[in-house]
Design a protein that fits this description.
Length: 151
Amino acid sequence: MDVVALRRRLAAIPGLSNPRVERTSFWHDKADITILVCPPKENNAGPCNDRGQVTGAERAIIEEKLRSLPGVEEIYFEPVMHRREVIARMERCPRLRADRIGAAYHLKLESGGSFAALWPDLQGLPAVFYVFDTHEPGISDSNQVEGNRNC
């Protein structure tokens, strides 16, 4: 599907404003929770305001916490360049700037596990930009990227 062309066609419909076309996230069927960490460049949003990317020490703290969580079947680390490729393809946006996004962790939960049950344990992790349930309608990795709406 040509998402850009579809957006243009939808925008041309009289009375329809701000059309949004969502694709299924690359991680939708692979993970249940996504944790976005601070990007390499200062990001003027939330907990990443006035700071740089997640440090090695902060990653170690995050990874130790994730390994200690009950009900987590698998932990995936997604480097910045893979995340950029995935988002660029989803959005058909080759101009996506890698310096504006951070790496991510993706958690696959055991059967019966839930985002709500783990949410309190995910609060207060260092250098975390955003945590979300990958199955929540309207929430995706690509719409949590700051400063990349050039497509």
